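Tokens for chain A. Residues wanted.
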């Protein structure tokens, strides 16, 4: 199966299938996708739009701020689509303007920690939607990097995926960094890109975040239960939904 799905306008569309999870079962292929903004798509795009529709996605979770959606658009409407805007980040910042002297990976991990504390209501809703979706799900932010990476880490962790695989999945976004930087320059002519970490997603960022979260709550599962107040029933449904079915006896 193919993890990276190639689009002209999307740079970071990936299938989360295949990672070994709980009870010896792997994450289902073709059911859970992470991506950069689906607002880049248009029915007039031809191959891109047909390729997206062909994946059978019926639930889209947009993790961006409402003002980002207003400025850059959202996934186009189509029959059968369930669209949810759940802005998990509550403290906006401009990555292009970050002080180049700060530790970039510590800085990003600290922003993830803020989202984990600020976005409780929205993160709970995301996990409940993933748990109950009866068709393929795609979730995204702007670049499919930070907010999307954090949600992917939570979902995969609850599905029993090992931390090393979660870190490796996060770091796959590095393959799209050059395109993110090129897009930024095209959208911001004459402006200086000050931060050398722009568009980067090394595994160390997610390692720091998960280490901090575990240090505070004991585990990702404890964070989800104690802080997000997501019960065992939701976690059980999520696992049943995103993992391969039990083999026939």
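Reply:
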């Amino acid at each position: 199966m193919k993890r990276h799905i190639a689009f002209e306008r999307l740079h970071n569309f990936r299938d989360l299938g295949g990672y070994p999870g709980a009870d010896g079962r792997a994450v289902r292929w073709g059911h859970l996708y992470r991506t950069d903004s689906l607002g880049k798509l248009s029915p007039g795009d031809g191959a891109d739009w047909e390729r997206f529709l062909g994946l059978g996605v019926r639930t889209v979770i947009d993790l961006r701020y409402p003002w980002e959606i207003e400025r850059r658009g959202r996934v186009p409407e189509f029959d059968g689509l369930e669209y949810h805007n759940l802005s998990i980040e509550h403290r906006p910042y401009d990555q292009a303007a970050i002080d180049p002297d700060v530790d970039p990976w510590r800085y990003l991990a600290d922003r993830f920690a803020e989202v984990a504390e600020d976005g409780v209501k929205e993160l709970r809703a995301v996990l409940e939607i993933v748990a109950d979706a009866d068709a393929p799900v795609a979730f995204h932010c702007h670049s499919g990097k930070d907010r999307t990476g954090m949600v992917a880490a939570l979902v995969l962790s609850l599905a029993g995926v090992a931390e090393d695989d979660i870190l490796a999945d996060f770091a796959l976004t590095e393959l799209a960094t050059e395109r993110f930087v090129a897009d930024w320059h095209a959208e911001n002519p004459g402006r200086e890109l000050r931060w050398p970490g722009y568009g980067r997603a090394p595994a160390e960022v997610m390692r720091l975040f998960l280490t901090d979260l575990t240090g505070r709550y004991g585990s990702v599962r404890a964070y989800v239960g104690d802080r997000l107040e997501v019960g065992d029933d939701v976690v059980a449904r999520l696992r049943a939904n995103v993992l391969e079915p039990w083999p026939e006896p």
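The radius of gyration is 17 Å. The mean pLDDT is 96.
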